[in-house]
Each structure stands twice: as C-alpha cells, then as structure tokens.
C-alpha cells in the first residue's frame, strides 16, 4: 500500500454530488421527462414464439386505423447491428429467435392508438425446434439459430464457428496445464451453474428518434456509450457518422451495463425513418424491459485445479459456457472477461481457460455489472474453499498463500501486474468480519476474492473550457449513470485548475459537441475520462499561466492556481483567472484546454492486457435456519482496491449497492421460463430484487494501491462490487451447514430441500 | 369521454380534463408536467411514483385520477421550491450520499416523509420496513436509511 500524504484540495474528499440537488427536488431530467410538441408514440409487436419462421404479416388493418402514422416490419429497415457480431436485425426478418423479439412496430398520435394498431397486426408463423440450454445448443444436431453466421461482420477478437451455435470461442494458455496436474498432489474438478438474472434498472428502457430533411437521424436515448452507439448505428445502416447524432438525456435511471448497444434504439430509428420527420418515442413497459432488453448470462463453468499438499496451486483449467440467447450482443466479450479472470486472482503457473459464447432461443444476454465474472468467480472461488476443506486449511490462508501481489504474473494473460492491493483487501476484510471468532451453530462466514480487467485499449477525449469570468465547463461524453462521474470529473478539474467545484459544470453527451469516449462501462470512466479531463484542465491551466506570467512578470513555472486565482508560489501577488483572461482578450475569449487518453498498448479493443486491474475481497457472515432453510444475512464486509478514491463516499455507495445486488443474485434473483421459452416472472412481484429489509449491514473498506497512470492514482470500482458477493455467501452457507452449493440462487426452497436431503 | 377533475396539487388548484382511465401518475406527468414523479413499473411494485394523497403515501400509478376530485396531492416538487429551504429529507439525502442515479429518489423521499410524519422517531428496523415498497437498485439502501434517520432527528429538533 502506498501511504499518501493528503496534498489535494478536492480529490479524496467526499464532497456532495453536483447532481444531488436536482435529483432530490425532482428537477433532474431523464429520457421520459423530455417533451416534444409533435411527438408520436411507438409500440412494438413481439414474437410469442422462441423460434419460428414468419410466413405472413398483414399490416393493412393497423395501417388503416386513424391516428396511425407508420407501421414498420423488418424489411422496412433492413439493417443488422451488433458491436461484437453484426447479427441482429432492427426488427425480425424471416424468422424470430426468442419470445419477445420485435416483429413489427407502430407510431401513432397516442399510446392508446399505437396499442390498438399493434393488436390489429396479423402474423403467421411456422414453428421451428428451439433450444434453450447452452450445453445442448453446442451438441451436434441442435437446432441452428443463425444459419448465416459465417456472413456476419464481427470484431477481430471474436471468432464465430459457422454452422454451429457457437458465436465466439476464447482460449488462454500459460505454461503446461497437463504437466501441472501431473505434478500436483491433489486435483479437484467441479462444475457450477450460475442463473440468468436481470439488471432491474428502475428506469425502463426508452428512446426518442427523429429523422430530418438532410437525411440525418437524431436519437435521444439513455445509452451508456453514445459514441459507440453512433458507430454501431453507422455500421448497421451504412451511413457516415455525420448522418447520426446521439444525445444522452441529462440523467439515466440506472444502467449496470444493460443500457449500452442497440436495443430500443433500432426499433425507434426504424419508425423514425417513416414518420415524415416527426419524432417518435418508445418507452418499454416493465414487462418488455424484462423480456426484450437484456439479461445476465446463465453460465455453466467447470474448474479443475491441481495443488500441492501445502496448498500451492500448480495448475488450473477452466471451461466456461455462457448462454447468450438469440443474439450475440456483448456476450462474446462478457465471456472473454469471464475467461480472463477464469482461474482467480492467484499465482498459477500452468493455466488453460476456454470459453464459449453460445446462441440459444432465450432472450438476449449481455453486459451486467461484473461482465462475466460473477459466473466464473462462483466456480473457482467455490472450488478454492473445497480444496481448503480437503487439505484441512483455512480458506483465508489458502487464498493468502496463492494471492497475486505486486510484480506477480497475470495467470491468464502472462503480463506482470502492478498496483495490486489484493492481500491488503484480504487481511482487512478478514479482520473486520472477525474471521477467527468462534461462532454459534448455524452461523457461518465465507470469503471470496477476485481481480478484474477493464476493456483495453480504449480511448477518451475531453475539452475543458475556461470562460472570461473564470467559470469552467467540462465537455465530455462520459455518461452519468448514477455512479457520480459528473462529480468525479468536476473534482479532477477543480484539483488541476484550482477552481472551486461550484464554478464547474459538466456536460451530458451529445455526439455533435462532446468528443469521443469509448463507453461508460468496464469501470473505466474515472481512469480513462478522468485522465482525459485532467490533461484538458492542465492544458487550460498552462495557457492561463502563460498569460499570467506576462502580467505578473515571472516564469509560468513559478505560478500556482487555487480558489479561482493564479498566484506566485510563496508570494503575495495574485490575480483571478477572469483577470488573467481579460488581460489579453479584452473583448472576450474562451480558453480551450484539450485532453485525451489512450493507453500505450497495441491491439484492437479487448485484445490486450488490461491497463489496470481492480482487486476486491468480500466476507459474509450469515445464519441459516436449519428447519426452514431461511438465510439471515448478518454482515457483509467489502474491501476494494480502487487505486485512489477521488470521492470516498461515492466509492462506498458503489460498494454498498453492488453488495446488495449480489445478495439478490445469490439468494433469490432468477429469470424463469416455461418449456416454450416464455419468461414467467417479468415483473417486480415475481422477480424480486432486494428491498431495504433484505439489506444487511454492509461495511465498505477502501484500499488504495495507487496506479502510476491513473488520475491521482485512481483505477475503478463499479463492476467489482458484486463479483465476490454471491460466492462469499455460498462459502458462508457451507461454513454454516457443510452444504456445498453448486448452483445459485440459493433460495430458501432450494436450501430447505438440500437440508432435508442431508438429513435423510 | 373526458371528465373535468379539480385537484389540489402542491397547494395549488389544478383543473384537468382527462379520460377516466388516466392514473394520477399520467395526470401529474403528462397534464401538469410534474415529471419528478417517476414511472418505473406502472403496476405498484417499484414505488418510484409515490406521492402523498391527503397525507398518505400512495403509488400514483394505481390511483385513477378521475376519482380524486377535490383531493390533495403533494409531489416531490411540492416539498420545496427554493434550494435554500430544502425539506430535511432532501438535505440529508444530499449530505449522506443517498442519491445515485436518482430515479427512485423522489418516491423514496415521499414515502419517507409519510413515514416520519406518522412516526417521528422510528427505529432503523421501522425505517427499513417502511421503505421496503420502494425499490432502489443503486445504493444498497444503507445511505438512504441513514438519511431518513438523520432527517427524523432534525425534524424532531426543529419541533418545539
């Protein structure tokens, strides 16, 4: 750990969020709060079948309904989109691949008319055999979901296997895993299953799109990556960037990875192309948000690990099968990241990880906080505890013995690691949960740890403009999804420019004005955009110092900025930034600072070693009622290495939120389907998420192993926060009951049955 | 067939002509432009649309507006119009870091207001139970609970 002397004025302080006032007074604008005078309302007809040919569509009655402006089907917007693989039609063409897929859409004067028109559309289908299970879908003879897979454009790192349902395959090999197993005293192998779940952002999905006479399309959408969206749309439609404009509403009501890519965007644009330039809005219902936006991957992961008697891990092999549903979406790179962390945060000399992203006739699965790691982590972090039990070792001790540390080799990619706060996280979490304390019967503690990459390489650019009165605007495409990025960027700018946060505004993205940012995902925003903004602020400061040096008669190197003023270091002479600008530009001008960050790492996106790794450890104490199987969460301790906390309270908020999401994931959240592929619980009554009554005491611990290249040493936090929770719970359940869970969620019913089995 | 309904919203009279199928949420958002009240599920399960109806917290998506003639509604916009005179709950939500994406925040603050109005000195358990009809996916609730307890304390202090 690096001990830092507190030398910053704003960075490292838990200042209040700059968007909090708007949010607590109900004045913050979200997508559905925007008003357009001539707005049309869109509704979507969705497939009732999991896999079927569309043999006939009759739109005549819908089109004749008064108040209907446009009715579109797949051939009216014959485009395919998708970041990893361009496999998804804007609306289904010729066949449907999951229950809930968009088949037709209507734009009408009111929502009610649009709904009535949808009911008047007649579609005839010819059913095809469907496959829902990823393991079945990769067997020969399984129904083929994408016959044209070999024709789809795709990311360089994604390798689809034509004439199968494997849309991507990944492999990481280091050393010789077979040799490692031969040298081991014990070899363990187990298979674990992780359920699909839903993000459950409280804001439903929506978009507003409008075409104009110049052939341009503007879309207002809470999407976590407006520049990526513009590229995905440009690639799909086959137009250059200037024909598309993406505007992110000021605020997004939760994302968690789900609100990126192409979802309601495609349908909304298909309609907007046919409404005589009138804007059209689609607001998904909660049911549609469940069935037809995005889910988390259900996964089957097999881990095999060889250890010496003393617990040293010699070899680890892992096979991951991720069910990505009907379209690839971000499934391939979710699987890739699952693979990257596939043997855990341990020094393992011999490694082989293979991952498969598999098409099925389930709704689409993609990015959800943790990006494939909750699934892979559940497997290897459960197995570590099983190994500890067999060796008679303490699970904490076994982890400490093998844990990655400064200078360790990344077991899957082979790069040398720096800024590694794992051991500190393990020790602090263990101490706080009182790991060694004797506990009464039916109480248990469990621990789990992990490391996570961010997508690399990826870029961010920003402007910082200083106006003639000394006020500052940060021009950035980072998206405020709730994590607090606007506040973080204001703090970084304040620190670098010496201007109080109150005088700084931070934009929301508009691709016409705000420069490139890869995405607000992968816990990358503070690091990447933080750097870009810091460099832009520094550039502005240097220009200001240059001007001030003339007036004050000293070298720019002798100046410093604080509190909106430029002053001579150690001297009394000072002037405000406004005075500095006016000293030269008497008729007014903006000082424009430019900044961008792109790591010095070769390769296409996702192909390279990560520019930083996050480390996290969570420890759980719980109690199991042996009669009913009910789990009572007592306490969760979550220690996370964030590099440097720019705003500690925001980091704590991320940790507390991720942990509670992880408790839902572990103990009751699961989307369920009938045998025909229809989702059975697409609402908050049947798909329960944690309430305040379900949430236990959560103790966040921030560890700061600063990163040389991060802004003020910062790395990231958001995604790591729920990765360890499910497995720490599973390990605590074992500790309390000696029942090893190989499948989640551990609902009360499932645990009750397991306890009953054990008795008989 | 539209009906004329006269409501008292945030202390002001509001007369609207509405279809009988419209909910209070529809009227607040679409007719009165009070978009601080959020639409999250339209079925009374998420709590984002919570407002006070005659002092009671209700899911405005489950209340038919046509039945509310002469009744009194308070929305998040009605809690304070002036940033220097925030309601204690609004202040403590900011101070304790209880806000992240903010989509659930208006509903939670309205529920918490009804809770504190009825029980000025609740235990943590009572707060957690009291807000369990309001879903938040970002915060894990800890800081929200802290904010509500702190606001209760401030409200008790301010009461003679």
For the largest beta-sheet of chain B, the strand count, sense and barrel status come to: 5 strands, mixed
State the end-to-end CA separation of chain B: 50 Å
- CATH homolog superfamily of the largest domain in chain A: Aldehyde oxidase/xanthine dehydrogenase, molybdopterin binding domain
In helices, the fraction of residues of chain A equals 25-40%
Strand percent estimate of chain A: 15-25%
> Can you give the mean pLDDT of chain A?
97
What class do helices, strands and sheet pairing of chain A give?
alpha+beta
At CATH level 2, the architecture of the largest domain in chain B is Roll
Q: Which strand order do you get reading across the main beta sheet of chain A?
A: 3-7-1-14-11-12-13
Count of discrete structural domains of chain A: 3
The CATH topology of the largest domain in chain B comes to Ubiquitin-like (UB roll)
Largest interface, chains and sizes: A-B, 59 and 55 residues
Under the CATH scheme, which class of the largest domain in chain B?
Answer: Alpha Beta
Please tally the helical runs of chain B, counting DSSP H or I stretches of 4 or more residues.
Answer: 6
Instruction: Kindly state the number of beta strands of chain B.
Output: 5
| Radius of gyration based on Cα positions of chain A | 27 Å
Globular, elongated, flat, extended or rod-shaped: what is the shape of chain A? Answer: globular
**What best-fitting shape of chain B do the alpha-carbon axes yield?**
globular
Percent of residues in helices of chain B: 25-40%
How are the SSEs placed, and which strands pair?
The complex is a heterodimer of chains A (760) and B (160).
Chain A: H1 20-24, E1 40-46, E2 52-58, H2 60-64, E3 68-73, E4 80-81, E5 88-89, E6 95-96, E7 102-108, H3 111-120, E8 122-127, H4 134-137, E9 166-174, H5 177-183, E10 186-194, E11 206-211, E12 217-220, H6 226-237, E13 244-247, H7 264-272, E14 280-283, H8 286-292, E15 298-307, E16 313-325, H9 331-340, E17 350-359, H10 373-391, H11 395-402, H12 422-433, E18 443-453, E19 460-466, E20 472-475, H13 485-497, E21 504-506, H14 525-552, E22 559-562, E23 565-568, E24 574-576, H15 577-584, E25 591-597, E26 613-624, E27 631-641, H16 648-667, E28 697-703, H17 725-737, H18 748-759
Helix pairs in contact in A: 9-10, 10-17, 13-14, 14-15, 16-17
Chain B: E1 3-9, E2 12-18, H1 24-31, E3 50-53, E4 56-59, E5 72-74, H2 76-79, H3 88-95, H4 105-118, H5 124-130, H6 142-158
Parallel strand pairs in B: 1-5
Antiparallel strand pairs in B: 1-2, 3-4, 3-5
Helix pairs in contact in B: 3-6
């Amino acid at each position: 750990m690096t001990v830092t002397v507190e030398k910053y004025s704003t960075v490292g302080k838990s200042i209040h969020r700059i968007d909090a006032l708007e949010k607590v007074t109900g004045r913050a604008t979200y997508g559905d709060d925007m008003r357009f005078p001539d707005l049309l309302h869109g509704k979507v007809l969705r497939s009732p079948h999991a896999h079927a040919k569309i043999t006939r569509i009759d739109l005549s009655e819908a089109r004749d309904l008064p108040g209907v402006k446009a009715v579109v089907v797949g051939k009216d917007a014959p485009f395919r989109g998708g970041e990893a693989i361009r496999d998804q039609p804007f609306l289904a063409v010729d066949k449907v691949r999951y229950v809930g897929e968009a088949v037709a859409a209507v734009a009408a004067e009111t929502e009610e008319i649009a709904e009535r028109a949808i009911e008047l559309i007649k579609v005839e289908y010819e059913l095809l055999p469907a496959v829902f299970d990823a393991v079945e879908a990769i067997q020969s003879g399984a129904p083929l979901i994408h016959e044209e897979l070999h024709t789809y454009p795709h990311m360089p790192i994604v390798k689809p296997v034509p004439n199968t349902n494997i849309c991507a395959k990944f492999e990481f090999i280091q050393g010789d895993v077979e040799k490692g197993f031969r040298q081991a005293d014990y070899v363990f192998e187990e298979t674990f299953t992780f359920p699909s779940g839903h993000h459950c952002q409280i804001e439903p999905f929506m978009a507003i799109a409008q075409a104009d006479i110049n052939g341009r399309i503007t879309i207002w959408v809470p999407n976590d990556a407006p520049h990526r969206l513009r590229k995905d749309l440009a690639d799909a439609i086959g137009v250059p960037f200037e024909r598309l404009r993406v505007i992110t509403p000021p605020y997004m009501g939760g994302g968690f990875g789900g609100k990126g890519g192409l979802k309601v965007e495609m349908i909304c644009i298909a309609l907007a192309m046919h409404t005589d330039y009138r804007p059209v809005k689609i607001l998904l219902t909660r049911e549609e948000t469940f069935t037809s936006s995005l889910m988390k991957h259900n996964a089957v992961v097999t881990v095999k690990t060889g250890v010496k008697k003393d617990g040293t891990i010699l070899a680890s092999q892992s096979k991951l099968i991720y069910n990505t549903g009907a379209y690839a979406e971000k499934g391939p790179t979710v699987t890739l990241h699952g693979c990257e962390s596939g043997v855990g945060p341990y020094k393992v000399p011999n490694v082989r990880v293979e991952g498969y992203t598999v098409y099925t006739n389930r709704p689409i699965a993609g990015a959800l906080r943790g990006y494939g790691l909750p699934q892979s982590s559940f497997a290897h972090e459960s197995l570590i505890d099983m190994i500890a039990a067999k060796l008679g070792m303490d699970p904490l001790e076994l982890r400490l013995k093998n844990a990655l540390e400064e200078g360790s080799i990344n077991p899957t990619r082979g790069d040398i690691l720096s800024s590694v706060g794992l051991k500190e996280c393990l020790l602090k979490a263990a101490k706080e949960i009182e790991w060694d304390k004797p506990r009464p019967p039916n109480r248990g503690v469990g621990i789990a740890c992990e490391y996570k990459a961010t997508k690399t390489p990826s870029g961010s650019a920003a402007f910082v403009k200083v106006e003639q009165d000394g006020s500052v605007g940060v021009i950035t495409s980072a998206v405020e999804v709730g994590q607090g990025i606007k506040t973080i960027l204001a703090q970084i700018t304040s620190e670098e420019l010496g201007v109080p946060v109150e005088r700084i505004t931070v934009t929301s993205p508009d691709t016409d004005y705000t420069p490139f940012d890869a995405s607000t995902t992968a816990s990358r925003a503070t690091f990447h955009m933080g750097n870009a903004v810091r460099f832009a602020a520094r550039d502005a400061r240097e220009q200001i110092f240059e001007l001030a040096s003339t007036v004050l008669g000293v070298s720019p190197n002798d100046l410093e900025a604080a509190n909106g003023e430029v002053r001579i270091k150690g001297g009394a002479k000072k002037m405000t930034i406004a005075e500095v600008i006016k000293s030269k530009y008497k008729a007014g001008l903006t000082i424009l600072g430019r900044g961008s960050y792109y790591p010095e790492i070769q390769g296409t996106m996702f192909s390279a070693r990560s520019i930083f790794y996050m480390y996290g450890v969570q420890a759980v104490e719980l109690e199991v009622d042996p009669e009913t199987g009910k789990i009572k969460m007592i306490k969760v301790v979550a220690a996370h290495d964030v590099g440097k906390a720019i705003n500690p309270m925001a980091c704590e908020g991320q940790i507390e939120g991720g942990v509670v999401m992880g408790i839902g994931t572990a103990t009751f959240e699961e989307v369920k389907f009938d045998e025909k592929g229809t989702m059975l619980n697409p609402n908050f009554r049947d798909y329960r998420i944690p309430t305040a009554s379900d949430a236990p005491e959560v103790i966040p611990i921030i560890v700061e192993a600063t990163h040389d290249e991060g802004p003020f040493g910062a790395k990231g936090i958001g995604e790591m926060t729920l990765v360890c929770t499910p497995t720490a719970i599973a390990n605590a359940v074992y500790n309390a009951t000696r029942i090893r869970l190989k499948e989640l969620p551990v609902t009360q019913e499932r645990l009750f049955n397991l306890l009953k089995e054990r008795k008989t | 067939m539209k009906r004329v309904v006269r409501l008292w919203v945030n202390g002001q009279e509001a007369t609207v002509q509405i279809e009988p199928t419209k909910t209070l949420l529809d009227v607040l958002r679409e007719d009165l432009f009070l978009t601080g009240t959020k639409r999250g599920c339209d079925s009374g399960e998420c709590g984002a649309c919570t407002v006070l109806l005659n002092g009671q917290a209700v899911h405005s998506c489950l209340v038919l507006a046509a039945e509310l003639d002469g009744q009194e509604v308070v929305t998040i916009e009605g809690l304070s119009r002036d940033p220097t005179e925030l309601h204690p709950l609004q202040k403590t939500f900011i101070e304790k870091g209880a806000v992240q994406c903010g989509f659930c925040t208006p509903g939670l603050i309205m529920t918490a207001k009804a809770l504190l109005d009825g029980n000025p000195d609740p235990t943590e358990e009572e707060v957690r139970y009291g807000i369990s009809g309001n879903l938040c996916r970002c915060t894990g609730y800890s800081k929200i609970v802290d904010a509500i307890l702190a606001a209760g304390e401030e409200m008790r202090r301010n009461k003679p």
